[in-house]
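Secreted protein, pasting as requested.
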Amino acid sequence: MTFDRRTFLRTATAGGAVFAFGAQGAGQAAAAPGGFPDYRHVRTLLTAGQLSYNPTGEIIFPCVRGVYDKLSAPLGRYYLYYAPHDAPGGICLAHGDSLEGPFTEYPGNPIVSNTWSPHYKVSHVSSPHVLWNADVRELWLYFHGENTTTRLARSKDGVHFTYDKTVLSTSMMPAGTTETSYARVFRHDLPARGARYVMLFMWNTTADHRDIGWGWSPDGRTWEFSDRPLIDHAAVGAVNVGGPHLLTRGGSAYVVYNTDKGSGGDILITEVGSDFSRRDHLGVFYASGGAAPENGRAASPSFGTDGGVPYMVYEAGERLSGAIALARATTS
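Structure tokens follow.
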């Protein structure tokens, strides 16, 4: 299918919640056949300047999780994980009782730092993605540091983590790989591969154009990886792609991801099929608005529901100088 910016509308599920989504940006009118809602920008949730832990003046890669039905005594109904990227980085937590905020910064941030003896000492850690592992009733944190390495830590309360292992590094990928980072992991069955989990991540090589790689695992700890990109930057007319998230609907799977064209970019969508054999590039999932806080860039989406309403939490604004923002699904 020809890649373009036309609206593509589906309903999807992620983490057990139903999502309906389209490609309208902030302030644009919905044009969703069948009554499916578009996501529209609602507000900014966090800026670096309002945070006590703010070593670099930037925050990226939000991951939101409803914990009210998973943890015995959570700090709030929702946990929002995020991080600075530049050194020293640091995995951080905010909590709130509504996805529309407000979110309160956890006073002990960072909950994971760039030094964790005896496991590692690196320049920075960043890009938190937290998975609820129902098999062991734990929150599993995937994060990078350095950009060559994706790591796993595990927690019973979502605040205090135990280091587990390295799950992905450049050494596990083909020669010429320079970065394997910004990973998100999802519960998704691939019976033909004996897998119950899928990982999506940003893959860079000596060609210096970032693609989306993928892998599969029976347990979320031990992984195999494809030696070919799942989403090739050139296939969607981009310089780089990243920030992938998996959505599923009607027996098929879709990857949403951001594209960077210079300093800006939109969030796109590709159907990969339930077995990840398709590469149907469907166009724009969410078009960034030109006004603040997006300023032409939306990236790194994460999804949740509150009161039955679907939301998207995402990076808004120029890379490393933006904010964490919220968009809400709407039918009007």
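Note for the archive: The domain at 10-296+311-330 is CATH 2.115.10.20 (Tachylectin-2; Chain A).
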